[in-house]
Write a structure and sequence with these properties.
two-stranded antiparallel sheet
Length: 202
């Protein structure tokens, strides 16, 4: 169930507000037969494997002349993991054939019901959280040729990981401490009358 409203508070200011309710449940079982023999997983029922999410969120867009910014956030109450939140700040400058933009964001990802309640599940599994920073620009070299480049860095904590074990059921979902990724992405796009060629390298 989701309820939201979109408010145009001024010609250059827009505000989106919303609330969202979800109940997620699963019923499943798994059977396999191999040279190691038959394996039947414990049955998951929706009475035991379920959760609820209640969220409130907003997104605000503001622009003046060549400058604009989008700011958004979501507050989430989960029946298993408690309270967590995300946000995003996206400023940009757009004039002529040049666009400069940035992204600073925090995001989270809750474990799936299978990762928590299955035979490989872990009820101590924590949500995965990430901080992201992007900075880049796009430039129109001509009416048919565009160039863009973006620097990005991302730090992720509590990554979901399937860990093999030497006792039944021979595996368990767990969290890794953290992972950091940084890089540079370059794009080139060429348009012809009936054809478009796109190149990308990271």
């Amino acid at each position: 169930l989701e309820v939201y409203t979109n408010l145009n508070l001024a010609s250059n200011f827009n505000l989106l507000l919303g609330v969202d309710y979800q109940r997620i449940a699963t019923s499943q079982t798994f059977r396999s037969v191999s040279s190691f023999g038959e394996f039947v997983s414990p049955e998951l029922t929706d009475e035991l494997s379920n959760l609820t999410n209640i969220s409130g969120y907003f997104t605000a867009n503001y622009s003046v002349n060549s400058f604009g910014i989008e700011v958004g956030s979501r507050l989430n109450q989960n029946s298993i993991y408690g309270t967590n939140y995300s946000y995003s700040v996206n400023p940009y400058f757009n004039k002529g054939g040049l666009k400069v933009f940035g992204v600073f964001a925090k995001s989270y990802k809750n474990p799936s019901l299978y990762q928590v309640f299955s035979e490989y599940g872990n009820k101590e599994l924590q949500p995965q959280e990430a901080l992201t920073f992007d900075l880049g620009f796009e430039y129109k070299l001509s009416n048919s040729l565009d160039f863009a480049t973006t620097f990005f860095t991302r730090n992720t904590q509590n990554l979901f990981f399937f860990k093999s074990t030497n006792v039944a059921p021979f595996g368990l979902y767990t969290n890794l401490d953290e992972q950091t990724e940084s890089g540079l992405e370059i794009e080139l796009k060429k348009r012809f009358e009936k054809l478009q060629i796109y190149g990308n390298i990271t």
